[in-house]
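Recall the central idea of this unit: under ordinary conditions, the amino acid sequence of a chain determines the structure it adopts. In this exercise we apply that idea directly, starting from the sequence alone.
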Amino acid sequence: MEKEFLQIIQKNQGIVHKVCNIYCDTEEDRHDLFQEIVAQLWRSFPTFRKESKVSTWMYRVALNTAITTFKKSKRRPDQNRLTFENFQIEDETYDAEVEEQIKSLHKAVNHLTGVEKSIVLLFLENKKYEEIAEITGITQNYVRVKMNRIKKKLKKLMDTEE
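Accordingly, the structure predicted from this sequence is:
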């Protein structure tokens, strides 16, 4: 069982890293969250019935763990808010306009709730509404409604920044 678990984590660790990157602003926090997510995955692995894709199960556990951690950190006043500076994206072909759009998007995403961030992350991962619903545990229709509201909220946040 341990060998199978390690293979799954090794093969799909990108999922955990993506979740950590969206919810944490420092390398230390990302590392801590990564460890916590892997621990939660290990705890829930014996009950994973393989009725859904491994990626769906991992996203669900990872996002629930991250949201719980995110909520706890919001209650601690000594925690800094996410800032774009923690997400420097290196690109071989630098485009100042694209870079500004990315900065603006990251700033806007920082104003979203934990659940909204998880929906955006999954949407940006090109997950279908059906899979987003399965991962987040909400209905597919509510995912569509929530995504439309998030898009409007992000547009408004990005427009007010300009």
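The CA atoms of residues 14 and 20 lie 10 Å apart.
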